[in-house]
């Protein structure tokens, strides 16, 4: 990193070269680019094998270095030559030694060979001689023997001579080698001397040459230094000269320029003076005009100033006021802000609180609702239970009472038949037939459907009035004398029902129902229609009516009558509207008229035929439903809720009273009288019974006494007695 | 006293000897002392005008005088110590001085006084070490078995064992039987008189010595007598088997040894095997020199084994009788070795076979830098392989093939091999009959390589700096 950086920096330090350490990012980027470029350049150069510095080095190789290099080379050569010279001796000695060794080895080999051959030869000779000894022994003749011995002797001598010769040869060789050894020693000593000599010479030479070379190097260095000095001096001189020349030149130029500029200055001065004068005059006139204007302006200014001052005062005042009010407002704002904050806090708090409360309350409400439902359920349950219990108790009591009544009646009958001997007539007792608690009259109303059914069923019957009576007043059947009170009640009932506009003939009802059936088919579901198609016509209309009543909310008989009534009224109203003139008719009249109508069958029929126009049915129905069923709904619901509690027990007492009064007062009086008579009779009877009992007891006592007497009389003691009791007895009896 | 009368005349005119005149003389005869007549005595550096010396001076003088009996040195102040050391006599017994004085100046005086010619550079620039080493060497060299008391050696050992690192023993005397033999004329007389004694004689037993010298690192031995001159006898140069055994034992006991040289001692195969056996598990030995002996192929095999067992750095078996087989053994060792840097086989007879084997080994070896195979009866075939070595091997620096008849063809091959080489700095091809042309070109290449090596060295040293 560093060398590269240095390399990039050093060549041109004066110029503002971008550096990596610079504060400006662009400059740093530029510096890095430069560095990279330099590196690539260096690499290229390296690749080309041209070291950028090598050339310079070659050029700059100084004379001294050259000298040093030369000297060094010379000296190393000298040294190596000298060393070679010295070691040459050793090498020569080595080679001589090795030569000698090889020679000696060769000589030794030859010698041993020779010795071996010699030994062989001598052995052969010796064997010859030994052979001849045996030959000599075989010789008889002394001359021969002598001859042979001589020969042997000669041969032995020859052998010995040979050996001696060999020995001599070897000794000669030894001596030669001894000599050679000495010579070698001498030679080596000489060698060593030579070596030492050479070494000394070498050292001397080296020392000398080193010194020389040192001198030369020093000289060369000095020369170089001088040259350098000279060249530098020359350069210095040259540059000084150059500088001097340049300075002179510059001076000349400067002087020239000064002159020129002075001239120019003069010119400019003159020009400027003229211009100045002109402008001065012009300006002075301007000044005069302006002064005039100034005066004017001053006047206006004065005026304005005063105005402004006044305005200023006023504004100041206002400003003060404003500041006061502003501060007040500000204070107010802050206060309000505080309040607002407080209120907000309070609000949040309260909100929170209320939410919690609300939550709690909803929880409570839910709980209470549940409890309430539970309670209702319980209540219903209990009500049911109570009703049941009531029914049961009622039934039980009724039964008991009925039994009692029966008993009473029975006793009455018995009394009548047995005691009085009169014929007993059974009193009329309607309550005996029915059982269960008394149901109030309105609840006994028939359901609308039942009514419809009845109406439709009764289609075949011709006597509509009878039917009507049977339908409309079931309570007014037959009156019986003992139940006067109830009869009156019933009449009241009929009267109340007669008050209502219910006296509508069955025909009308039927007609109405038919119209309904036809006109309000849309209220019936199509599915139902399909289902109904195979049924009889009566059945069909019945089912249809059921569905229509469901839709219209008509539940019971009364509603049907109401509807009918409403229809009639509607038609009347319409006719009245159409007539317009018949407005004077009072409602009472109308009512009477209606009563009349109900009374008259033919008129009834006619009226029923135009009971209502089928087209108006829908409108009428709508109005009917609007008027009647909305308000009724609620009350109906409520009544449904409380119908159990509302059971009125006003008639119960009468009912039970009826039961109690099954025996009338007159009869009771009869009973009382009878009772008294019977009491008396009973008393007599008891008296009698007592007397009878007394007599019976007397009789028995008597019999017993008789028995005793008899016993006594009959006993033996008697006999022994002076006076036998029997006699006494007899006396007594005789007494009696 | 008779000296006193005789001396005056001598002393008057030789001012250089003046300080040596005994004091009593001067006292008794003031006139005889010319110093009393002079105002300034320029030649005496210690002269001063003060007539009465300082008590300190007197004390120091006393200490110097009685140093043998009461050596006080380390308790003194440094300046006084220097003065005392300057004045101490070199004749003081070693027992006193050996462990007490460590001052080099004193030992310098001792050495120069005793031997005159001294090269302290050979002794690690320590005069004390030099003194003790040379002292011990002298004692051992003059030791005659059965005559000299072994105590003379052993007494010195405790004194000098801390300072002796190298023993260069240039001769070992054989034992003498004749009582008239002295230490002075040992060599000549012993040789002449005991010539017929036979080779059964043993030399100094190193076992008693070596295990006591705990700092010994180098040992040079020559079993022979130097300077026997015309009293030459063969048995002066015997190295007996028992000597060898004791030496082997001693070597084993000396664990600090690094360099071992035994030269000119007629070490043959058996003995070298014995020695190397003892050196096989030596911990530090790195240099072994067995030159000028009688080592043959078996010995060379043992050396090869040693090369592989130990981390040897240098082996010299110059001037022996190693032939082709021995050279092969060494070559085999070279292929496995990674420590050996120098091998000298000069003046053997390894022949072409051995030479080729070693050259092949050099193809694989990457540590050897110096090899000397001069005077080894090598010829062209070896040169062929060597040229290959020159091409491939990058570690060899010095090669010596002098005195081998390589011939012109061999020379050409070597020249060719050298032309690819950039590392060899020295290549001795003198007396090899390779022709002047080859010789010249080889020398040129060598010069180039030398330049290169020099530049490399300079750059390396520059890098280090």
Automatic annotation (TrEMBL), chain A:
Residues 475-486 have a biased composition (Polar residues). Residues 94-114, 586-603 have a biased composition (Basic and acidic residues). Keywords: Cell projection, Cilium, Coiled coil, Flagellum. Residues 1-26, 42-74, 91-114, 472-499, 576-611 are annotated as: Disordered. Residues 654-713 form the Dynein regulatory complex protein 1 C-terminal domain. It comes from the Eukaryota. GO terms for biological process: axonemal dynein complex assembly; cilium-dependent cell motility; regulation of cilium movement. One of its GO terms (cellular component) is axonemal dynein complex. PANTHER family: DYNEIN REGULATORY COMPLEX PROTEIN 1, NYD-SP28 PROTEIN. Belongs to the DRC1 family. Component of the nexin-dynein regulatory complex (N-DRC) a key regulator of ciliary/flagellar motility which maintains the alignment and integrity of the distal axoneme and regulates microtubule sliding in motile axonemes. Plays a critical role in the assembly of N-DRC and also stabilizes the assembly of multiple inner dynein arms and radial spokes. Coassembles with CCDC65/DRC2 to form a central scaffold needed for assembly of the N-DRC and its attachment to the outer doublet microtubules. This is Dynein regulatory complex protein 1. The lineage of its organism: Eukaryota, Metazoa, Chordata, Craniata, Vertebrata.
UniProtKB/TrEMBL annotation, chain B:
GO terms for biological process: microtubule-based movement. Its main location: cytoplasm. It is found in: Cytoplasm, Cytoskeleton. Keywords: Cytoplasm, Cytoskeleton. SMART domains: LRR_RI. Pfam families: LRR_6 (PF13516). The keyword Cytoplasm applies. It comes from the Eukaryota. This is Dynein regulatory complex subunit 5. The lineage of its organism: Eukaryota, Metazoa, Chordata, Craniata, Vertebrata.
């Amino acid at each position: 990193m560093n060398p590269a950086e240095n390399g990039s920096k050093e060549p041109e330090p004066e110029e503002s070269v971008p550096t990596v350490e610079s504060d400006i990012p662009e400059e740093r980027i530029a510096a890095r680019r430069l560095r990279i470029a330099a590196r690539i350049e260096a690499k290229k150069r390296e690749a080309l094998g041209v070291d950028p510095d090598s050339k310079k080095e070659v050029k700059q190789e100084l004379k001294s270095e050259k000298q040093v290099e030369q000297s060094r080379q010379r000296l190393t050569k000298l040294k190596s030559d000298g060393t070679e010279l010295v070691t040459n001796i050793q090498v020569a000695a080595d080679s001589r030694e090795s030569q000698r060794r090889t020679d000696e080895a060769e000589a030794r080999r030859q010698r041993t060979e020779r010795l071996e051959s010699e030994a062989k030869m001598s052995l052969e000779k010796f064997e010859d001689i030994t052979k001849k000894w045996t030959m000599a022994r075989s010789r008889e003749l002394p001359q021969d023997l002598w001859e042979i011995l001589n020969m042997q002797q000669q041969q032995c001598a020859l052998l010995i001579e040979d050996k001696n010769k060999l020995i001599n040869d070897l000794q000669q060789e030894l001596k030669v080698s001894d000599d050679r050894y000495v010579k070698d020693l001498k030679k080596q000593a000489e060698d060593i001397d030579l070596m030492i000599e050479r070494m000394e010479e070498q050292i001397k030479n080296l020392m000398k040459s080193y010194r020389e070379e040192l001198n030369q190097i020093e000289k060369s260095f000095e020369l170089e230094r001088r040259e350098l000095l000279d060249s530098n001096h020359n350069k210095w001189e040259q540059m000084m000269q150059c500088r001097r020349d340049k300075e002179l030149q510059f001076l000349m130029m400067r002087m020239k320029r000064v002159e020129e500029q002075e001239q120019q200055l003069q010119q400019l001065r003159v020009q400027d003076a003229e211009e100045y004068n002109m402008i001065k005059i012009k300006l002075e006139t301007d000044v005069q005009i302006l002064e005039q204007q100034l005066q004017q302006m001053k006047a206006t200014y004065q005026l304005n100033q005063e105005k402004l001052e006044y305005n200023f005062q006023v504004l100041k005042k206002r400003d003060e006021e404003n500041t006061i009010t502003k501060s007040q407002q500000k204070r107010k704002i802050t206060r309000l802000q505080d309040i607002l904050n407080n209120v907000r806090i309070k609000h949040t708090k309260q909100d929170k609180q209320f939410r919690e409360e609300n939550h709690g309350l909803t929880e409570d409400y839910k709980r209470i609702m549940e409890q309430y439902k539970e309670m209702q359920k319980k209540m219903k349950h209990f009500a049911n239970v109570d009703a049941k219990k009531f029914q049961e108790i009622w039934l039980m009591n009724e039964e008991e009472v009925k039994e009692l009544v029966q008993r009473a009646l029975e006793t009455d009958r018995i009394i009548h038949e047995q005691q009085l001997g009169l014929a007993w007539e059974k009193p009329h007792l309607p309550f005996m037939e029915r059982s269960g608690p008394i149901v109030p009259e309105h609840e006994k109303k028939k359901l609308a459907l039942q009514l419809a059914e009845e109406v439709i069923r009764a289609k075949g019957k011709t006597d509509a009035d009878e039917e009507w009576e049977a339908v409309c007043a079931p309570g007014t059947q037959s009156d019986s004398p003992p139940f006067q009170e109830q009869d009156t009640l019933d009449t009241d009932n009929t009267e109340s029902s007669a008050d209502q506009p219910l006296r509508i003939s069955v025909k009308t009802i039927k007609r109405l129902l038919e119209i309904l059936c036809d006109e309000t088919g849309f209220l019936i579901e199509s599915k139902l229609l399909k289902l109904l198609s195979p049924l009889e016509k009566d059945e069909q209309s019945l089912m249809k009516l059921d569905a229509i009543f469901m839709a219209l909310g008509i539940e019971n008989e009364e509603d049907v009558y109401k509807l009918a009534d409403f229809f009639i009224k509607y038609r009347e109203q319409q006719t009245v509207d159409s007539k317009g003139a018949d407005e004077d008719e009072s409602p009472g009249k109308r009512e009477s008229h209606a009563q009349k109508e109900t009374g008259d069958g033919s008129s009834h029929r006619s009226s029923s035929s135009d009971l209502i126009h089928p087209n108006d049915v829908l409108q009428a129905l709508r109005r009917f439903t609007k008027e009647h069923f909305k308000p009724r709904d609620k009350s109906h619901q409520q009544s449904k809720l409380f119908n159990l509690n509302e059971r009125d027990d006003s008639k119960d007492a009468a009912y039970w009273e009826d039961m109690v009064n099954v025996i009338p007062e007159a009869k009771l009086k009869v009973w009382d009288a009878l009772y008294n008579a019977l009491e008396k009779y009973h008393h007599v009877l008891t008296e009698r019974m007592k007397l009878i009992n007394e007599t019976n007891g007397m009789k028995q006592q008597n019999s017993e006494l008789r028995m005793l007497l008899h016993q006594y009389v009959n006993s033996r003691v008697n006999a022994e007695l002076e006076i036998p009791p029997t006699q006494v007895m007899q006396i007594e009896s005789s007494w009696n | 006293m008779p000296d006193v009368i005789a001396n005056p005349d001598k002393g008057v005119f030789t001012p250089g000897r003046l300080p040596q005149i005994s004091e009593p003389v001067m006292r008794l005869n003031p006139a005889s002392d010319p110093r009393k007549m002079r105002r300034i005595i320029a030649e005496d550096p210690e002269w001063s005008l003060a007539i009465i010396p300082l008590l300190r001076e007197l004390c120091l003088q006393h200490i110097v005088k009685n140093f043998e009996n009461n050596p006080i040195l380390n308790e003194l102040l440094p300046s006084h110590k220097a003065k005392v050391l300057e004045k101490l006599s070199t004749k003081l017994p070693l027992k006193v001085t050996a462990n007490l004085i460590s001052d080099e100046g004193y030992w310098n005086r001792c050495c120069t006084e005793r031997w005159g010619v001294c090269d302290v550079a050979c002794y690690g620039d320590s005069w004390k070490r030099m003194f003790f080493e040379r002292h011990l060497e002298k004692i051992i060299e003059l030791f005659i078995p059965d005559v000299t008391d072994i105590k003379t050696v052993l007494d010195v050992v405790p004194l000098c064992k801390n300072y002796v690192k190298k023993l260069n023993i240039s001769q070992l005397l054989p034992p003498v039987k004749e009582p008239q033999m002295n230490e002075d004329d040992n060599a000549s007389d012993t040789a002449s008189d005991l010539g017929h004694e036979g080779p059964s004689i043993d030399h100094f037993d190193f076992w008693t010595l070596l295990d006591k010298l705990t700092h010994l690192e180098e040992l040079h031995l020559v079993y022979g007598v130097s300077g026997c001159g015309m009293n030459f006898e063969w048995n002066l140069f015997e190295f007996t088997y028992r000597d060898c055994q004791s030496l082997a034992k001693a070597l084993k006991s000396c664990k600090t040894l690094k360099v071992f040289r035994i030269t000119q001692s007629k070490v043959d195969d058996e003995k070298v095997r014995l020695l190397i056996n003892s050196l096989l598990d030596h911990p530090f030995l790195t240099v072994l020199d067995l030159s000028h002996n009688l080592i043959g192929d078996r010995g060379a095999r043992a050396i090869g084994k040693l090369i592989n067992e130990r981390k040897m750095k240098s082996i010299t078996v110059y001037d022996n009788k190693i032939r082709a087989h021995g050279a092969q053994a060494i070559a085999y060792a070279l292929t496995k070795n990674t420590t050996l840097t120098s091998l000298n086989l000069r003046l053997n007879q390894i022949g072409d076979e051995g030479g080729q084997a070693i050259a092949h080994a050099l193809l694989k070896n990457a540590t050897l830098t110096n090899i000397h195979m001069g005077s080894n009866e090598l010829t062209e075939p070896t040169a062929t392989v060597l040229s290959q070595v020159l091409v491939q091997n990058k570690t060899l620096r010095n090669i010596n093939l002098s005195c081998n008849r390589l011939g012109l063809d061999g020379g050409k091959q070597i020249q060719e091999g050298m032309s690819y080489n950039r590392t060899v700095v020295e290549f001795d091809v003198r007396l090899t009959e390779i022709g002047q042309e080859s010789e010249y070109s080889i020398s040129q290449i060598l010069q180039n390589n030398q330049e290169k090596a020099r530049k490399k060295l300079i750059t390396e040293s520059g890098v280090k700096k």
